[in-house]
Amino acid sequence: MPGPSYYRAMVVKNLKAQGLNQKQIAAILGCTRANVTYLSRKYGLGDWPIGRPAIPDGWNNQRLIATTVVVIAGRDLTYCERCQQQFKEELHIHHVDEDRRNNDISNLKVLCNSCHHIEHIVKRKRDSKGRLLNVTG
Fold it and tell me: Pairing with 89, which of 34, 64, 67, 74 sits 20 to 30 Å away (CA)?
């Protein structure tokens, strides 16, 4: 699993594709232009032409947008907002209303794997004995 700097680089790439320069991106991310340059070089983002961002394998556009919103809002992607523990790896972005298209910051929570699982399992239906039912789509 890629580390936090990889996801931050994807945010840089997304903002860069929107036409922002290094100074503007650094201001949004709360870092220096040198940090933006470092990420750009480390992950091969190249010079600063405007173009469509590449979406990492296993991602979709909604996941990239949600991660961008959370980073821009200044929330820590390694801190679980449910159990309030700090982790070394990047955590999950949970949509409270379960609508992946609703990327309003109030609808997004940063959760560890366990807490994200709990958020979803609590909402699943159970039989009369309390056992989870298989949901087929």
Answer: 34
* Whether residues 101 and 125 fall in one domain: yes
pLDDT in tens, 28-75: 887 787 788 778 877 777 765 444 455 555 666 667 777 777 776 788
For residue range 17-26, list pLDDT tens digits in order. 787 878 888 8
Cα dihedral 71, 76, 80, 85 in deg (nearest 10): 170
1 vs 11: CA distance, rounded Å: 17
Exposure string of 69-86, with b = 16+ CB inside 10 Å and e = fewer, is bbbeeeeebeebebeeee
Give domain status of residue 113, yes or no: yes
Answer whether residue 68 is part of any domain.
Answer: no
Same domain, residue pair 129 and 84: yes
